[in-house]
Write a structure and sequence with these properties.
The structure holds 2 protein chains of 2 kinds. By secondary structure, chain A is an all-alpha fold. Chain A is built from 4 helices and no strands. The radius of gyration of chain B is 18 Å and the shape is globular. The chains are: A mainly alpha, B mainly alpha. The interface between A and B is large, with 66 and 67 residues.
Chain lengths: ~130, ~280
């Protein structure tokens, strides 16, 4: 029997399921953060009309991770959102692996360009 | 209004937006920003940040459902994502240099243009059109399921489609939308890709495009957990429902309903932008 790699659609279905799992994990983290957040702030007045910008504690991965470890509701929500932002990055990484498995060098190259742009954005902005 | 009531109402509104976004293949973001800014009076920068996060949730969450139907074309998507991600970074950079009212006006104009294009009859690509050499070299041509089996299609005008995708990415980064409408137009009208293939391929491109600017927004403090949380959870729930209906739904009516809804939102965004209320 010759080695037969998965076709595009087979790989895509696996990637799709992994992404859905990632989104579910991110959503679960956000819900957990929401419970803590609402238990502290539920009855306070909502004011999102005025833009203040988030505190530094909610703007970068190291700071958000620190707040998450202290079980701060807002930090946990933000951590879940970061997990969510990571899912498309994971999809691109999986695609590189999928194309490499098919020995499709052209698309390994094209997909690596997309990955480089994403990492440039996340690292360059100071999030990761 | 208390934070609890605010959270619940935004989650409900986002649920409906996510449902419509998934049905039209255009993402929830296109409705989320006007909803938050016009109905809930949220600062447009927070609205854009929350919207960006929600379009990622929609795109990643529904990927498996769309792929299983066999419509999306990963090579077309990946190739065009080079243009959309670079565009998204450019858009996020521009966003710091323009006022919120200007963003509102641009947002409204983009909505109007999307409504106009998606409401228009789609010209049929001639069957005997010469295949594009670039499309052949990049192996973009594919096939998709129809009632009786698979139907092959060829991809045309790749440079035009690629340029439009750069524009779609820029608007995504500037306005916090998935730019699904423009991505679909670039594929089905410029490149001659079948509508169902265009909408589903657009869906998975939206997440990668939005991720390219989401980091920039988060680091700038535009993503507020109190707003992004109900928006993300609501849009996600709505998009899960919408994805189940998509394959059965008729695209013609989807376009008509979508166009009517966004025209109303567009006019209000432009009006509020000019009167300095954003």
């Amino acid at each position: 029997m010759t080695h037969h790699s998965l076709d595009d659609r087979g790989i895509e279905v696996i990637i799709g399921n992994l992404l859905r799992a990632g989104v579910l994990i991110a959503a679960t983290v956000v819900v957990a953060g929401a419970v803590i957040y609402l238990s502290h702030y539920a009855l306070q007045p909502a004011n999102f009309r005025v833009f203040r910008g988030e505190a530094a504690a909610l703007r970068s991965l190291p700071a958000i991770a620190k707040g998450t470890l202290h079980l701060d509701g807002k930090s946990i929500i933000q951590f879940g959102l970061l997990l969510l932002i990571a899912t498309p990055v994971a999809r691109v990484i999986f695609s590189v692996i999928g194309f490499a498995d098919e020995r499709d060098h052209l698309y390994v190259g094209l997909t690596l360009i997309v990955l480089a742009v994403l990492l440039y954005s996340l690292i360059g902005s100071g999030v990761a | 209004m208390t934070i609890l009531a605010f959270t619940v109402l935004i989650a409900l509104g986002s649920l409906i937006a996510g449902f419509l976004g998934a049905l039209t293949g255009l993402g929830g973001g296109v409705v989320i920003v006007p909803l938050l800014a016009l109905v809930f009076g949220v600062d447009i920068r927070y609205a854009i940040g929350a919207s960006l996060v929600s379009v990622i949730a929609t795109s990643s969450g529904a990927a498996a459902a769309y792929v299983r139907e066999g419509y999306s074309n990963i090579r077309i998507g990946m190739f065009l994502e080079i243009a959309t991600t670079v565009g998204a970074i450019v858009g996020a950079m521009i966003a710091t240099h323009v006022t919120t009212n200007a963003i509102g006006i641009i947002f409204g104009l983009v909505l109007l243009y999307s409504a106009f294009l998606s409401g228009r009859q789609q010209p049929d690509v001639p069957i005997d059109a010469t295949p594009d050499r670039i499309a052949g070299a990049l192996r973009l041509n594919g096939s998709y399921p129809v009632g009786t089996g698979m139907r092959a299609y060829t991809v045309h005008r790749v440079p035009l489609g690629f340029s439009l995708m750069f524009g779609a990415g820029t608007l995504s980064g500037l306005l916090g939308i998935g730019s699904g409408a423009i991505k679909v137009i670039a594929m089905d009208q410029a490149m001659g890709i079948p509508f169902k293939v265009s909408t589903t391929t657009s869906n998975f491109m939206i997440g990668v495009t939005a991720a390219a600017s989401a980091g920039i927004y988060l680091s700038r403090g535009y993503i507020d957990p109190g707003i992004a949380m109900p928006v993300m959870l609501g849009v996600l729930g709505g998009s899960v429902l919408g994805a189940r209906v998509l394959v059965r739904a008729r695209t013609k009516w989807l376009r008509v309903i979508f166009s009517a809804a966004i025209v109303v939102l567009a006019v209000e965004m432009i009006y509020n932008g000019f009167s300095g209320k954003l």
